[in-house]
């Protein structure tokens, strides 16, 4: 169980209010408010409450059972906690206590990666919310909803829950948690309208509330935002001033993220020694036997550091670990997204079934009323049966359409409609296995739009998205039906060309490069020229393992960037570069798009 997650659950409980005799009610309220600040005293009060449980009113007894379940979760006994919480959620007389039990189950299931169960409880939580007037219970429940939606990458919905928290603050709460969830959702969604003042305001709220863990979490989001803005020096200062504090909290997930941000900041400043130091520290802080986004990014950063230093063996080792960690993290993230969509479909299907049953009941009632008029009843019966039949067909059509849309979302990039990263990797591995069996050459092309960040900064994200779409369209004109085309992330793309020689791949890459460069757009003040750099690798030299092909193509792409961009590079030899007209570079570099690590 995550410490910050438990802090989020218990934070809303400081305003615990339950009808009861004065002494027992005060003990319950006090126990709820000091669970994490004075845990020894909490356990003493819990024991005292158990001694008097035979005389507690029913509402207070359910509240005591909830505190017992919370303590079981705090001790790491999730199984015992969930068993108790299910009973409380079904049978407790107080809607507020039932809501707290559902919120704690959302927390437990979310942090143990049992996403489908987490979203089932979240759905029950949202249905119960309108019945609960206890602001403390509502605040805690909304916080758990926002946190789970952030983890599953549904930032818009998370933002709505965070705003509800801010609009309904309980007595004694200043909105620290709500502000943290709101900023986290905005940072992860790439919102460009944030300012450092908003982060500092949230940090001040958390420090005023003595919530140091959440204050540190907001500082991390502030540092991530500064890195997005290219302000690495400021980001490093924000984190290093409080680095020792973060380590003293002994909350591994927060420590790991802080160290990753420090590593990324120093890498941006080309301080490779410190970047390596903090990347390794971030990996050491990872929870054992789990995959996470910081773990994947730390391995990728180490690969780039060693590659930049020319340490090929070390770079290869870290690239293998990065591929494994990235695949594990993507699988976990996909599981969360699948669970969200699955539960959403199930809820809709249940509503449709209820609608059908209601219509059938209406039909039966109408039949009873019209028994005296046989002809009219017969006609009405036929019409009603047709209505039910049409409703059933429409319901089946909607379910099928949802399934097809769900499958498309799992395999296609939502912006460009080409292969998603994971789908491209899976299909490319199949192609390479088949090519290896028949000893036929295949080539991998990595392409990266040049200076893409400048386009986003100068013309905005709308123009940036249009640049990506136009570049994809230019590529597709020169691809065969058998070629695989995927977006690896950001502005980096990959093309797998089966049954293709190295010479042919380089020629086709050059044609694609020229097509992209011949696709200008108009920005706010001047036209935007798109160019791209290409790295080509072939199975003739790299073998039929995707990992080695990716490394060789990535190295070729890196040399294309170093060689002036807007060119094609094949293999490991310096003279294997096929460049565009060098004279065009100077006039196009300023307004051209590029991808993160190669820029």
Automatic annotation (TrEMBL):
User: What is catalysed by this protein?
Assistant: 2 GTP = 3',3'-c-di-GMP + 2 diphosphate
**Alphabetized SMART domains for the sequence:** GGDEF
* UniProt cofactor(s): Mg(2+)
Q: Which GO terms describe its molecular function?
A: diguanylate cyclase activity
Q: What is its EC number?
A: 2.7.7.65
Q: Which CDD domains match?
A: GGDEF
The name under which this protein is listed is diguanylate cyclase
* Organism of provenance: Dyella solisilvae
Organism taxonomic ancestry: Bacteria, Pseudomonadati, Pseudomonadota, Gammaproteobacteria, Lysobacterales
